[in-house]
Amino acid sequence: MNLRRPQSAVALVLVVALGGGACGTATVHRVEAPDLAVRLTAGSRTYLYVTDDTNRFWRVRRSDVRDIDHPGNVLAAAAAPFLLAGLTLLGVSKATTRSQDATISYAIGTVYTALSLPVFAVGFCSWAGSTAATDDVSEDDARWPHAVPGSTQNAPGSIDEPGSTAESASTK
């Protein structure tokens, strides 16, 4: 990447600033427990396996999950119109016969595309990775043993958390 060109530098700054920190955390909205801001690691038929910001692994029953707000979807949706406009202006610059109009269209289209493409890519890749992590991979020998550590605990606030009334009643 040639950082002497201003649009390359601006695009790099946008990718790092917008995509670096906020695109890894999903919000898991649960039925009768507090929401969790976590990274989705893997899934089975019964559980979603997640990692919190201290790198502790937790499991959340799928039946306790009301909704998941995956990371990156807003970022990709915000960048998509600018990417489309930039690509359209680049196409217009090739189709127009007036050289001044073509130069202006090309310049604006290049800036829009250079700024929005990396932001869209980071958002889309974050969203796609998060949604793929919710798939049931318990039958997949290549991913399953490595995705979930053996000492995974129930997420805080879970109904079947150790010491809860549901577990105490079932052990008697």
Outline of this structure?
With 172 residues, the protein is α+β, with helices and mostly antiparallel strands.
Name given to the CATH architecture: Roll
Low-pLDDT residue spans: 162-172
Q: Identify the CATH class.
A: Mainly Beta
> Main sheet, how many strands, which sense, barrel?
6 strands, mixed
Give the overall shape, derived from the CA principal axes: rod-shaped
Can you characterise this structure?
The protein is an alpha+beta fold and 172 residues long. It has one domain: Roll (SH3 type barrels), CATH 2.30.30.100. It has five helices and six strands, in the order αβββββαααβα. The chain has helices at 6-22, 73-95, 99-133, 144-147, 165-170; strands at residues 26-30, 36-43, 47-51, 57-61, 65-69, 153-154. A six-stranded mixed sheet has the order 5-1-2-3-4-6. Strand 2 (36-43) and strand 3 (47-51) form a beta hairpin. Helix 1 (6-22) packs parallel to helix 3 (99-133) and helix 2 (73-95) runs antiparallel to helix 3 (99-133). The chain is rod-shaped, with a radius of gyration of 22 Å.
Notable features of this structure?
172 residues; alpha+beta; SH3 type barrels; six-stranded mixed beta sheet; 5 helices; 6 strands; 17% strand; disordered C terminus
Set down the secondary structure blueprint.
Blueprint: H1 6-22, E1 26-30, E2 36-43, E3 47-51, E4 57-61, E5 65-69, H2 73-95, H3 99-133, H4 144-147, E6 153-154, H5 165-170
